[in-house]
Structure formats: structure tokens, C-alpha cells
Amino acid sequence: MVDFSFTDEQQQFRKILQDFAKEELLPNYTKWDRENITPRHLWRKLGELGVNGLRIPEEYGGSGADCVTTGIAAEEIGRGDFNLTYAVMLNGLVGEILAQHANSYIKNECLPQIASGEKIVGIAITEPSAGTDAGGITSTAVRNGDYYILNGEKSGISVATCGDAFLIFAKTDPSKGNRGISAFLVPSNLDGLSTKGYEDMGNIPVGRGSIYMHDVKIPASYLVGEENKGFSQVMNGFDLSRLLIGLQCVGAAMQSIEETIEHVKIRHSFGKPLATYQGVAFPIVTHHTQLELIKWQAYRGLWLRDHGFNHSRVSSTVKWLGPKYSVDAIHECLLLNGHYGYTKEMPLEQRLRDVIGLEIGDGTAQANQMVIAKEIIGKEYRCY
Question: Taking the domain 8-119, which CATH number applies?
Fold first, then answer.
């Protein structure tokens, strides 16, 4: 039997988040962008609502929710404040990796603080010369007794300027390529670690930037999982984050469409509401339809993950087209609102800037098409 319904508990959770997004997030969405502030108090509020700890086991302060429920949070928070959805996407990815691979000390120390929103933890893989080719990173971690010494530079890292710790990936055996990568939980206040923020086009409250490591000394107990196994750990996690990103973008775009529908109903031209003209109605219908297709493909991918089925191709499809269709829809909404949409008095221009960022992060369109090609054509024909 095919069942597309949500449980009563999931519906109740959605309603709570819808109300929270409408009443507390949406009115201040543009405020944090203009003031260049990461609203940590809202991360803590999301912790109280159970959003931060959805993929963290109950014994560590989370709820151990399934992936579909996590997707609901990404969609609804994305409607209210696109940038706060990083509390869903980032915590889902980091929470899964730590819960599955970290030792008990790290789990007890870090996971409850992530779930509560007291601690923001970023994930640092990308480097100036290694993005899509994550196996090409050059940061190193050299064992020295009971410590590792980390050196290198990470770039384009979300929460770089506001993170309390980072899940940093570095090569412990450079001779093995991506089979020689390990993961470490690194507090941001360690000697030798510094950060620098970017003046980005969007996602301002996310605090994206670079992380610099110069002889950073980290206890061996902060190794996450087995040495040289870090690459496989994070690659599986990206199948989750890419689905959540798709829903995050769809949430922001759907909110824009709903606001625009109200506008074209009351705005008149030549004596008629704009909504009566096919040149207005049909583009709205097109974008709404495309977003619905991505939305349900994303939930299908989350269902597959919950049930242990392969979902890499679905995840890559959602990550490729989710941000693209959402950018197209928000752009159309901006135009349909005329010059009002072009002003900073409306949230459309910021949503456009913010969503464009996720056409890049967590895998470009081309990177995701490579994953899809490998599955439908055959891995023996892949270009890497």
C-alpha cells in the first residue's frame, strides 16, 4: 500500500511550527540580515520546540525523530526564516554523524547542547582548492601522542564566525586520498584556530567564512569515528542534508507564492485584478507545480532513508532542482509585485539572495548531476 499521509503527531508538530514561523520568525526575518546578527536566542527557542535535536537520540537530549518529521521542520521553518533552517539542516547532519560515530564522551558533552540550542556546531570540509572534489582536501591531522595537530584552511563554512565548535575533516593519511580522511570535533576557542567572515550576497545571519588552523592541538579523544573513515561518514550524511535543503528552499518559495497570490488578487490593472490575467496566473501555476513535485520527491527520499533504502539519486535530484526551482519562483514573485518587490520593505529580495546560496552549498547542480549519472548510466562511466 502506498501512503502519502502524515501521522497525527507529525501534523500537530507541523501546526506548532507553522504558528511559530508566522508569529515569531517571519516578522523579523529581514532584521537579522540588515543588522548582520546571528539570532542565537532563536536557536535556543528552536531547541525548546525540539527542532535542533530531531536527529539526536533521546538519551542525549534529542527526540530521535524520523527523517520525514525532520523534513517537516525544514519546510515550515524555511517559510518563516530561511536562515534559521540551518538549525534543522546543519544539526540534522552533525547530529547524525556524532550520534552514529562519536565516542560516549563527545556524545554526552556535545549532543545535549546542540539539541538545546546552547551550542552551534558547524561542519568544515570545503577548502579553497577542494569543493565538489571533497577528497582533494589538503588540511592535515598528525598524531602526536595523545593529541592530533591540525593544519590547513577551510573555506565557505556555514556558522564559521558564530560556531562554538566545528566538525573538521582533515587527512590523517594523505597517501590514501579520500580513504585517508578523518573527522574531529574541534572547539572554536582552541589556540591556533581563527576565523574570518565573508561579505556574502545572502545568508548573512549564517556567518559564513573561512577557518584557519595553525598547529591546533586537539585531544585524540575528539576523533569522531575511526581514523581514515571520515569521508564515508559525511558522504552518507549529505544524502540527508540535501533532502532537507530542498524542503528548506521550497518552504521559502511557497511562502513567497502565497504572499504574491494575495497581492495579485487585490492589485488591479485595467479595471481587473492582476490574478485574472493568464500572464500572471499561469507563471504562478507553473512555479507552484514545480515546487510541489520537488516537495514530494523530497519526502519520498526521506521515507526511503527512514526505511533503509538507497536514496542518493533522489537526494541529488532534490538538491539540484529544489534551489533552482525555488530561485525561479521567488524571482517571478518579485517581478509580479513590481517595484514593491524590489524594495527591502518586502522579504522577496532577501529570500532570492538567500536561496541562491544553496544552489552552491552542499553540492552544486553539476555535482549532483554527476551522482545521478553514476546511478542511471553506471559508475564505470563516471568522470571521477
Answer: 1.10.540.10
* Residues 123-227, CATH architecture: Beta Barrel (2.40)
Residues 251 and 187: their CA atoms lie apart, in Å, by 32
* Residue pLDDT tens, the chain, 384 long: 577 889 999 999 999 999 999 999 999 999 999 999 999 999 999 999 999 999 999 999 999 999 999 999 999 999 999 999 999 999 999 999 999 999 999 999 999 999 999 999 999 999 898 777 777 889 999 999 999 999 999 999 999 999 999 999 999 998 888 889 999 999 999 999 999 999 999 999 999 999 999 999 999 999 998 888 888 777 778 899 999 999 999 999 999 999 999 999 999 999 999 999 999 999 999 999 999 999 999 999 999 999 999 999 999 999 999 999 999 999 999 999 999 999 999 999 999 999 999 999 888 899 899 999 999 998 887 776
pTM equals: 0.94
φ/ψ of residue 227, rounded to 5: -60, 140
Distance from C-alpha of 33 to C-alpha of 308, rounded to nearest angstrom: 39
Q: What is the spatial distance between Cα 300 and Cα 239, in angstroms, rounded to a whole number? A: 13
- Reported CATH class of domain 231-381: mainly alpha
Minimal CA–CA distance to 100: which of 231, 237, 227, 212? 237
Looking at the chain, the domain(s) classified CATH 1.10.540.10 span 8-119
Residues of the chain with CATH 2.40.110.10: 123-227
Range list for CATH 1.20.140.10 in the chain: 231-381
**CA–CA gap between residue 368 and residue 384 (Å, rounded):** 13
Strands (E), 62-219: 121-124, 140-144, 147-157, 165-171, 181-187, 193-197, 209-219
For 189, counting Cβ atoms within 10 Å of its Cβ (0-12 exposed, 13-18 middle, 19+ buried), the class is exposed
